[in-house]
Design brief:
This protein is an alpha+beta fold. The chain has eleven helices and 18 strands. It has helices at residues 48-52, 76-91, 111-123, 134-141, 182-196, 203-213, 250-274, 277-286, 300-308, 321-332, 334-338, and strands spanning 7-13, 17-22, 26-32, 35-38, 44-47, 62-65, 68-69, 72-73, 98-105, 128-133, 152-157, 162-168, 171-178, 199-200, 230-237, 243-249, 288-291, 312-314.
Length: 342
């Protein structure tokens, strides 16, 4: 029997989604970072889309867990189960052939959490395990050259956090992370509809409203025929508790988002104002890259450009920039992370 090829694997361990790249095969997993577990046996019932579909619809025997929330680890054991289940599903009986593992993580994660995540790779039997920041991978995955002596800035508006980082010479010079991103937007939408429209809705409905109606401009989101989009939301009436249906329009959601984006504005200005003058000056030419799922909200680029007064551009691959960056990092920094490539 011939020698089987060793696998290099890159993981985007995001708050909202888990993406797994295998060199030579592409991205083989791109699903929600959600796991369903049997409370009695602690066995995995489902992960990803299958687990997400169970949210709000399970009985007491099944627990739905999002092991990362707000860019921080809430359950390290469940992260291990999530990674173990998905990797074994991909490789079946060939887990021993995973030679190198690179895990990209949110900037907010502490050193203790970073070490815990690195140890996860070792517990899975992968000795050559390394970690890196998502903003660094997102820049590389979007096609930026961060290894030159020039300032490059990334604003990654994800599910749990918005990470903002200034990079140069292949490393993060300064960064910040705030828990104002997709999940926070959803919670604010839920609060607004309950208090102002007297309807209780769940997280999944709030996310659908966000996707359909989000805009930071005065313009309405429109459909393929150019017609303005409204959203019919169903839930439980606050008074009486009976099922009810209401219509939500974009200006309502815009007010919520503009309030949320004030925190992103403050964080961005903080990084810009503390940046070394030479690197800050570089941004006039290099601009600011925006990535992450919520970077696609209508008007985000113009909003940030008005604040920073430098060019702002949207990644061509905002949803997969991090895992695309893992692909490149596994190649160009293999020696740095893991030693000489054999």
């Amino acid at each position: 029997m011939g020698n089987k090829k060793k696998h290099y694997v890159g993981i985007d361990l995001g708050t909202s989604n888990l993406l797994i790249y295998v060199e030579g095969q592409g991205t083989l997993f791109n699903e929600p970072s959600v796991i369903a577990v049997d409370n009695k046996t602690q066995q995995v019932v489902a992960v990803g889309f299958e687990a997400a579909r169970l949210i709000g619809k399970t009985h007491s025997q099944v627990r739905i867990i999002r092991p990362l929330q707000g860019g921080t680890i809430t359950d390290i054991k469940m992260i291990e189960k999530l990674l173990s289940y998905t990797l074994e599903k991909i490789f079946i009986s060939e887990m021993n052939l995973v030679d190198k593992l690179l895990i990209c993580i949110p900037s907010r994660i502490t050193e203790t959490e970073k070490n815990a995540i690195k140890e996860l790779g070792h517990s899975l039997g992968i000795a050559n395990t390394s970690i890196d920041e998502e903003i660094k991978a997102a820049a590389i995955g979007s096609g930026l050259d961060i290894f030159v002596p020039k300032g490059v800035m990334v604003v990654d508006i994800g599910g749990g956090t918005t990470d903002i980082g200034l990079l140069s010479l292949g490393e993060v010079v300064s960064s910040t992370s705030i828990k104002v991103a997709g999940d926070y937007f959803d919670r604010r939408i839920i609060e607004y509809i309950k208090s102002e429209r007297k309807l209780e809705i769940g997280n999944q409905t709030a996310e659908k409203i966000k996707i359909a109606l989000s805009s930071l401009t005065g313009a309405y989101p429109v459909d393929e025929d150019g017609q303005k989009i409204v959203y019919s939301s169903m839930g439980r009436a606050v008074e009486g508790g009976l099922p009810q249906k209401i219509t939500i329009e974009a200006p309502e959601i815009r007010k919520i988002l503009l309030d949320c984006f004030e925190s992103i504005k403050i964080a961005l200005l903080s990084i810009l104002e503390s940046a070394p003058p030479e690197l800050a000056g570089d941004l006039v030419d290099t601009g600011i890259l925006v990535t992450g799922g919520c970077s696609q909200i209508l008007g985000v680029v113009d909003y940030l450009q008005n604040i920073a007064q430098v060019p702002v551009f949207l990644s061509e691959v905002p949803m997969t920039a991090v895992v695309d960056g893992c692909k490149k990092l596994l190649k160009i920094t293999s020696k740095h992370y893991f030693g000489e490539v054999k």
